[in-house]
Amino acid sequence: MSKLGKILGMWAGALALTLIGTAAHAQSAAEWDQVVAAAKKEGKVVVYSGAAPNSFKRAVELFEKAYGIPVEILIGRGAEIRERVRTERSFNRNIGDVLINGLSTAIGQTMAGDVQDHGPLPNVAKLISPFMDPPFNHTDKIVPTNPTSWAIAVNTNLVKPADEPKSWQDLLDPKWKGKIIYDNPLSNGGGQASMAIFLEKFGREWVEKFKAQQVTFSDQYTIAHQRLARGEFAIYAPFIVSETFNLKGLPIKGIVPTEGKTYSSQMVGMLTGAPHPNAAKLFVNYMLGDEVQTNFADLGYTSVTGKVSTTLPEELKPLMHGKLFDIMTEDRLQKAIPILEQIFK
Amino acid sequence: MRLGRYKPAPGPLLGVGVLLLILGFLAAYPLAMLLYGSLHSTPPGTPGEFNLVGYAKIFSAHDASVVFNTIALAFVKTVLALGLAVLLAWIVARTDTPWRGTLEVLITLPFFIPPIVTAMSWGMLGNPQVGLINQVWKAVTGSTSSPINVYSYAGIVWHMMQYSIPFLFLFIVDIFRAMDPSLEESSRMSGASKLRTFRSITLILMMPALTSSFILSFVRGIESFESALFFGTPVGITVITTEIYNAINQRQGPDYQYATALSFTILAFLFLLVLVQWRILRGRTFTTVTGKGYTPNVMRLGAWRWVTFGFCILFFFVTVVLPIGQLLIGSFFRYMGFYSADMLTLDHYQSVFKNSDFWRGFRNTMLLGFLGATATMVLGSIVAYVSARTTWRGRRLIDAIAWLPWMMPGMVLGVGFLWAFAILPHSIPIYGTIWALLLAYVALGTPVSVRVMNGAYAQLGYDLEECSRVHGGSWFQTFWRIIVALAWPSFAVGWILTFFGIMRELSASVLLYSVGSEVLSVVLLKLWTNGAAEQVSVIGLMMMILVVLFRAVQLRFLNRRIGMA
After folding, report:
1. B418–A83: do the CB atoms touch at under 8 Å?
2. Phi and psi, residue A71, nearest 5°
3. The domain spanning residue A160 has which CATH number?
4. Does residue A12 sit within a domain?
5. Which of A54, A56, A91, A345 to mutate to test the interface with B (most CBs of B within 10 A)?
6. Is B101 exposed, middle or buried (0-12, 13-18, 19+ CB in 10 A)?
7. Which 116-155 residues of chain A touch chain B by CB within 8 A?
8. CB of B411 closer than 8 Å to CB of B221
9. pLDDT in tens, B311-353
10. Which residue in B249, B253, B515 is closest to A77 by CB distance?
């Protein structure tokens, strides 16, 4: 083939691909329009949520306003939602359409078959690294919505700026002995996930030394905040940075450790046997939309699509959107738990 | 005693059969689902195999210390609470202590406040670093050490007692009130001292109520959750319920097999206790309310009545004024425990009043509370009647089945209801409806209603029923116009206990509620999860006002009926 022929061939190929792509896009857009129409016809969507209700309140309002589809939310603790979903699926009693739960519980549920494939969702393409890959975007069944990050909090009446811990390592400083309150490392949540990360990154000896600091453990972060603010303790970890809004005016300051914040995410997926599958699909997709992601950024969460808050005060941005350290995945956590039980039980 | 039992006219077999069906469905069926869960590697509906892994896990050194902790805490709590409750009930019902009517309402208040709210209060009052009590102590004595630390075994016992004392008091006070004082008068006339009369007559007559109360309270102590969670976990004290909570909620995959196995082991132990109680009471009679007229009188204490009054006020101050005052003041500040002028706010009240979830939950809870408490008390009255006052075959079985839900920790029983209702054929529309909640509440409340009514029936003489029968009264007329009419103060107390039990119930509610049937406890959980502890306190205070109203109405009726001053 002549050079001209090759060039013409390439152009023809490119043109064909473009046309196919455009047609496919037009087709998928048309298909998505069908999903939207079917969702409106279904009339409602039932969400089972293990997340703090306020974090999704505005997102739900935005969805209802955008599509005119009412959202009914049932809340519960992560494990309760999990068992309810499992029972409904096992006995064909499906009521829920959408699942919102923490990363490890949601992945456990996905593996157990509680969540079904959501199919192509337009907004999944918006996910940025690392949220487009597992463990976040898990086998096309669940997607991340609003990653929670954990830092260190100090009581500003007890800890002078010069004495503030700068890194996770600083928690071993003897001056903090008996002055730290920490989320129970044997409980499912930030305390356990973060401690599993420390175990991996800093080693067992570090964890044992941390325990030797005579740390007080708490299962209720609300209570831990109160005890820190009242001056019962100088340091609280791991501190959910988005909680800063709820603690305005109290002598509590969040600090991003030099290693970065530990983090996890709320996940959303379509429940197996959802009675309103199209509305569920629409809801899952909408949680990755610009409006909702901007709202999450405003609330102090990291946006999984890279949206930036327009309302967050400048002084809070380093804390809310500062450096991330590591996330604990299900398989690694399962390996860490027996060791944590040996140390802390 | 058995010879005197009243033999009812309608077919006993049918009656026992109907009761067995009802209780079997409400109590035995959910427990059977849990038993399956304890013996199967996976929960119902998921493929797995039968094994004893859950039970094998229990026999570890860790669990032995957990069981020991739990039993020791429950026992100490029960003994102390029962002693104080008897003393307070005696003061209120049988002495001329001033303002007894008011004291009676005030003493019972702590029982009706959500435990997370009082836990917050005591966390502020009794923490060793900055707790108010310790601060005052240090200021007054100049000491540098803190005498009070709620984060300890004593703290757990104290927080549990906050609920146990009013609960037991409610149980016991009406028993004191319904007692014919002629027996005590005979004792006094025979030369016995007041103390000896109290010990040899009054206490002995109250044996059924006291042993029932002891066991109810001990079982509740074993199943107490919030106190250990708030004040034990931070210092490494684990009890059975926090162990179960961890097995269900705090692991990556909930370990229901272990949680249910542990629960059944405890159930077996507690059931033995009940058998012991039956053995203690067997063949003895405790009748104090007979056909002979009597006027409940009160003991004249002279100047000592101001001592008893002072004791009640001290109790009220420590258990109500301190924690509730803390809550009340805290509810007007942005953050509880931070009392500065710039933190003053009415936001928490406004947020609660504007919260549509709260109002919807409130309406549903009121509806379920009224229906549930009434149904529970009717069922409990019948079960207790059959158990205590008939010779029907199977009455012991009925009594035993009615006990069962009380012996199973709430968070496990909630799952039992979830499984039980979900597995029903779709033609029985219970799952996902408000009926699921109602049935669960009736099952959960029945043990208390049976105990309350059992205690009341045990004091009624058979002569009244026989008299009614001789004069041509039917079984139902006799039951309604003699038994219910005489036992109604206990019925009212049981109703209130059940009503507020429903108001507080969370474990089953959160698994069974559906959209539109949210209840108050779920709304509280929502607020708590959002970190709105101050709004939770506001709702706690509103619940308390409701209690005061209910109790005032109840006591007004009671006063009218028995002429109590």
Report:
1. yes
2. -110, 130
3. 3.40.190.10
4. no
5. A91
6. middle
7. none
8. no
9. 999 998 998 888 888 888 888 988 877 778 888 999 999 999 9
10. B249
Give the one of A75, A79, A223 whose C-beta lies nearest to B249's C-beta. A79
CB pairs under 8 A between A and B: 147
Residue A106 domain-assigned?
A: yes
Q: State how far the Cα of B538 lies from the Cα of B327, in Å rounded to an integer.
A: 8
| Residue B105, amino acid | V
For the record, the structure tokens of A225 come out as 């905040």
Average pLDDT rounded to a whole number, residues B122-150: 86
Residue in this structure with the two tokens 């016991």, named with its chain if needed = B172
Instruction: Flag whether pLDDT at A11 surpasses 70.
Output: no
CB < 8 Å to A153, chain B: none
Residues A249, A158, single domain; the answer is yes
In this structure, which amino acid lies at residue A214? Q
| Domain-located, residue A307 | no
Same structural domain, A203 and A125 = no
Q: Say if residues A116 and A92 touch (Cβ distance below 8 Å).
A: no
Nearest by CB to residue B422, choosing from A54, A91, A104, is A91
Q: Which domains, ranges and CATH numbers included, belong to chain B? A: 12-562 (1.10.3720.10)
CB contacts, 8 Å: A84 with chain B: 418, 511
Indicate if the pLDDT at residue B548 is higher than 50.
Answer: yes
Measure CA of the first residue to CA of the last residue in chain A; give whole Å. Answer: 76
In Å, what is the CA distance from B216 to each residue of A45, A91, B209, B259, B407? Answer: 44, 35, 10, 22, 9
A26 located within any domain: no
Contact A230 B515 (CB under 8 A): no
Length of chain A, please?
345
Q: What is the mean pLDDT of residues B111-128?
A: 83
Residues in chain B with CB shorter than 8 Å from the CB of A231 are 129-130
Q: Which residues contact B410 (CB under 8 A, 6 or more apart)?
A: B223, B225, B444, B505, B506, B507, B508
Alpha-helical segments (H) within A138-235:
190-202, 204-211, 221-229
CA–CA separation, B204 vs B184, rounded Å? 11
Report the range of poorest mean pLDDT among B82-91, B163-172, B176-185: B176-185
What DSSP letter does each residue of A260-298 carry, written as one string? -EEEEEEEEEEETT-SSHHHHHHHHHHTTSHHHHHHHHH
Beta bridge partners of A99: A48, A269
- Which residue of B342, B515, B537 to mutate against A (max A Cβ within 10 Å)? B515
CA of A51: how far to CAs of A75, A192, B324, B367, in Å? Answer: 8, 17, 30, 28
* The amino acid at B104: E
CB-facing half-sphere around the CA of A54: CA atoms within 13 A? 17
A269 lies in the same domain as A257: no
Separation CA B543–CA B506 (nearest Å): 15
Asked which of B157-161, B291-295, B474-478 is least confident by mean pLDDT, the reply is: B291-295
Residues A288 and A203 occupy one common structural domain: no
Does A246 lie in the same domain as A217? yes
pLDDT reported for residue B564? 40
Question: Alpha helices, DSSP H only, in A166-220?
Answer: 190-202, 204-211
Total count of domains within chain A:
2
Whole-angstrom distance, CA of residue B408 vs CA of residue B30? 11
| Inter-chain residue contact B229 with A220, CB threshold 8 Å | yes
Q: Which domain holds residue A338?
A: 149-263+314-344
- Same domain, yes or no: A59 and A153: no
Which pLDDT does position B565 carry in this prediction? 33
Do residues A76 and A176 share a domain?
no
In chain B, residues with a C-beta closer than 8 Å to the C-beta of A243 are 531
Q: In the prediction, which pLDDT does A311 show?
A: 86
Q: Tell me, yes or no, whether A75 and A186 share the same domain.
A: no
B19 and A CB contact within 8 Å: no
